[in-house]
């Protein structure tokens, strides 16, 4: 047994950072993102200097410099000559970044960030529904109908229902041919899809009501009614979120 494997009796366990995760820089970046979003390092203030961070995380300067580079890419810090590494205002943060979005949602007591996510999703999916109603072939329409019919059978199983729900929306997005908008929606949802605050309530009656919205969207796409499909998608996403949402604060950001 090597000396590195021996711990003196009664000695404190080594910090998590000393156990060397697969990618130290990414692990430390995740922790620093969380600290910045939580306000432990407020905007306009300097990030602790390299020696302090090296000591805090028990790593080399090389690892810290890589972590700072990742923070820069996410828009959370700016390196200024002679001033050090300065925390930037939230307006500059990359909200499409997985770590930034997840940390921001976790710290948002007002649900404003999730409201904004839903508004963004609603805008993009409404437009994609409009296009899908103009371009969907019979195979796509048949698939949408099959998904809606199957969801009617799954209203007592909200977990499986949600899987088919996502498949329905993805089918509409795919039919639009807009790979960029689809990618943005899927990226945003992937960060929150399993969080309790986004999933919200899951009662049977809510699944039933949700599928009424899906069926309306399907009908408008099948009728090749672009405006009707867009309006149905807009209403469905809004209504579904307002029901699931609960929580504090008024949903003023969703009003149009």
Report on the structure:
The chain contains eleven helices and two strands; from the N terminus they run H-H-H-E-E-H-H-H-H-H-H-H-H. By secondary structure, it is mostly helical. The protein has two domains: 17-92, Arc Repressor Mutant, subunit A (Orthogonal Bundle); 108-254, Four Helix Bundle (Hemerythrin (Met), subunit A), CATH 1.20.120.530. Strands 1-2 form a two-stranded antiparallel ribbon. It is elongated. The termini are far apart. 28% of the residues are buried. Mean pLDDT is 89; it is low at 1-9.
Q: Indicate the percent of residues in helices.
A: 55-70%
CATH architectural group of the largest domain: Up-down Bundle
The value of Rg in angstroms is 23 Å
Mean pLDDT reading: 89
Distance, first to last CA: 68 Å
| Total beta-strand segments | 2
Helix/strand-derived category reads mainly alpha
Note the overall shape. Answer: elongated
The neighbouring-strand order within the major sheet is 1-2
Low-confidence stretches: 1-9
How many domain units? 2
CATH topology of the largest domain: Four Helix Bundle (Hemerythrin (Met), subunit A)
Tell me about the biggest sheet? 2 strands, antiparallel
CATH class of the largest domain: Mainly Alpha
Summary, kept brief:
Helix content is 62%, strand content 3%. By secondary structure, it is mainly alpha-helical. The protein has 2 domains: 17-92, Winged helix-like DNA-binding domain superfamily/Winged helix DNA-binding domain (Arc Repressor Mutant, subunit A), CATH 1.10.10; 108-254, GntR ligand-binding domain-like (Four Helix Bundle (Hemerythrin (Met), subunit A), Up-down Bundle).
